[in-house]
Design goal:
The complex is a heterodimer of chains A (about 425) and B (about 160). Chain A contains 17 helices and eight strands. Chain A has about 425 residues and is α/β, with parallel strands linked by helices. Chain A folds into three domains: about 20-230, Rossmann fold, CATH 3.40.50.11540; about 240-320, Ubiquitin-like (UB roll), CATH 3.10.20.600; about 325-415, Up-down Bundle (de novo design (two linked rop proteins)), CATH 1.20.1440. In chain A, helix 3 crosses helix 6 (about 100-115) and helix 14 packs antiparallel against helix 15. In chain B, helix 1 runs antiparallel to helix 2 (about 30-40), helix 2 (about 30-40) crosses helix 3 (about 45-55) and helix 3 crosses helix 4 (about 60-65). In chain B, strand 3 and strand 4 (about 140-145) form a beta hairpin. Helix content of chain B is about 40%, strand content about 10%.
Chain lengths: ~425, ~160
């Protein structure tokens, strides 16, 4: 089983050096890419089926293909790696940032060449201090080796790269909010259209891609679209970093073929439940995805299959709910997070999320009434996709809506018993 | 009459160097706030006014960003800032016990600083170490797989 993203990552916590990366074939993809036209690279990446690993799952090659190309287009264009991993329960990009920084940097350079960007940024969250050191050093080494700067590897392609260390707020992971943060402003999301590919950073065409997405790019260029497609065991190409946290025996992170079943990840890789704990459900891809339960264990963990059963692959990092943990308490924790992280720009999100958090507080403290469940359900309706400015509130409603569906009896018990049955 | 400036000339130069990389001076607002905080530990009203002059922005516009971002401190903090992950995986794995124990040991609540200025206690969203929950970060150092018995040993490292 091939593991292109992680096969060279060392398990002693140190990062792969430039020399080690080059000895493993690193930066050969860039050499190859610079001999191709930007449009040819866009096509290879599109044909590979690579989808955005940040959670949205949009075709990476298609996104690049939307950038205006040619002489009479706005410049400079920008290319941004979104390393603002803040989705609750997600810890996959940290491994790639700390373990193999040049793989990411090479992916950014190839992506920037494919859209003819002049400047690139790594937008990193503050808490990733180790990653900050590793990436800073790697960028400098890439300059010294001639992979960055002017006339990269003797061509007429120029690219500068720098890092922005964020100062908090979950919403910065939303690509238009990220652009406002990079411009020094409050990170409120922007109205779309225009999309960043047309009008992004400082009003110029800009591509924003997730760290895991970009780390795949050098391998796709080196080995081709067909090779990448065959890595998966579904129609969608590639491997995926899957993770599991919660009361499982071996919480961790594994690079597996895209489409590996939820059951295999939990039973084989995570070692299933700790002794004394029974399985109750999962959030399959971070805090903003819908719960899945025992009946869903055989779902292939790819974008289409998880969508089909009413949830999302998201970041692919699974949060496990056990029978000793209160599902209402878990949703309450999530809604407090989302309420706190709302940027406050649009009313349903700013007012609705604190309301849901308060209703869940009431249920947990034994002060809930049956009508509260209906009010919670109405919030799911009022914060549905299309009713808010960005995806934060609809994402926040996914665990709530699915908890009301699968754990309704547990909500009702809180009302009937006038307390949290788990306390 | 000249009033004493909060920002030193070196700090001002560091901020000016940042905006040279951007098409607009105001784009250096967040980076500028970070420079202020790096040298002063927090961002005072006076510092905001001086930063506003450097970046040719209104103090209100600077403060709008400063109060938006959770890691820009608009009040003084202690010598060490403890940020405890209060997100979902850590909550499942025993966050409540950890935070109760920390609050007891330090005698403070979230948002407060110990009387000896040693520690400020704050919550932080998911630290991306969920397979080693529960977790906290003190200054720049991550501590995970926390158990209440180890907290004293960890705190001892920060004087």
């Amino acid at each position: 089983m091939e593991k292109p993203l992680t096969e060279h990552i060392k398990n002693d916590g140190t990062s792969l050096s430039l020399m080690e990366y080059e000895n493993a074939g690193g930066y050969q993809a860039l050499r190859k890419a610079l001999k191709l036209s930007p449009e040819e690279i866009q096509k290879i990446v599109k044909d590979s089926g690579l989808k955005g690993r940040g959670g949205a799952g949009f075709s990476t090659g298609s996104k690049w293909g939307l950038v205006p190309m040619g002489k009479d287009v706005p410049t400079p264009k920008y290319f941004i790696a979104n390393a603002d991993e803040m989705e609750p329960g997600s810890f996959k990009d940290r491994l790639l940032l700390e373990g193999n920084p040049h793989q990411l940097i090479e992916g950014i350079i190839i992506g920037a060449y494919a859209i003819q960007a002049r400047f690139s940024y790594v937008f990193l969250r503050w808490a990733y201090h180790q990653a900050s050191k590793v990436i800073t050093q790697a960028i400098q080494q890439a300059y010294e080796a001639g992979y960055l700067g002017e006339n990269i590897l003797g061509t007429d392609f120029h690219l500068d790269m720098s890092m922005h260390i964020s100062v908090g707020r979950y919403i910065c992971g939303e690509e238009t909010a990220l652009l406002n943060a990079l411009e020094g402003k409050r990170a409120n999301p922007r109205s779309k259209p225009p999309f960043p590919v047309v009008s992004g950073l400082f009003g110029k065409p800009t591509v924003v891609n997730n760290v895991e997405t970009l780390s795949n790019v050098p391998h796709i260029i080196s080995k081709g679209a067909d090779w990448f497609k065959k890595l998966s065991i579904t129609d969608e190409g590639g491997t995926k970093l899957y993770g599991a946290s919660g009361r499982v025996k071996k919480p961790g992170l594994w690079e597996l073929p895209l489409g590996t079943s939820l059951r295999e990840i939990l039973e084989v890789h995570a070692g299933y439940m700790q002794n004394g704990y029974n399985f109750k459900g999962v959030l399959p891809g971070g805090g903003s995805t819908d719960f899945l339960t025992t009946i869903h264990l055989d779902v292939p963990m790819d974008y289409a299959s998880v969508s089909k059963i009413g949830s999302r692959l998201g970041t692919g990092t699974i949060i496990v709910l056990d029978d000793k943990t209160c599902p209402v308490g878990m949703v309450r924790n999530l809604e407090h997070f989302f309420a706190q992280e709302s940027c406050g720009w649009c009313t349903p999100c700013r007012e609705g999320l604190p309301w849901t958090a308060k209703l869940l507080d009431a249920l947990e403290s034994g002060n809930g009434i049956m009508e509260d469940l209906n009010i919670l359900a109405s919030h799911v309706h009022y914060m549905a996709p299309g009713k808010t400015f960005c995806a934060l509130a609809p994402g926040a409603m996914e665990p709530l809506e699915s908890a009301l569906k699968y754990f309704k009896e547990d909500f009702e018990k809180h009302v009937h018993e006038h307390k949290c049955p788990w306390n | 009459m000249t009033t004493e400036k909060i920002l030193t000339s070196e700090e001002v130069k560091e901020i000016q160097k940042i905006y040279q990389h951007f098409p607009l001076k105001s784009a250096a607002c967040i980076e500028g706030l970070k420079v202020v905080q790096k040298y002063h530990g927090w961002v005072s009203d006076e510092a905001i006014k001086e930063l506003a002059e450097i970046l040719e922005m209104s103090p209100a516009a600077i403060d709008s960003a400063a109060t938006y971002y959770s890691l820009i401190f608009r009040r003084p903090v202690g010598r060490h800032v403890i940020m405890v992950c209060d997100s979902v995986s850590c909550w499942i794995m025993g966050y409540d016990k950890i935070i109760d124990c920390l609050k007891n040991k330090l005698g403070i609540n979230y948002g407060e600083t110990t009387p000896d200025d040693r520690f400020t206690l704050l919550p932080i969203p998911c630290l991306g170490t969920c397979d080693h929950a529960p977790a906290m970060i003190i200054d720049e150092y991550l501590h995970n797989d926390l158990i209440t018995d180890n907290l004293d040993t960890i705190l001892e490292k920060y004087k």
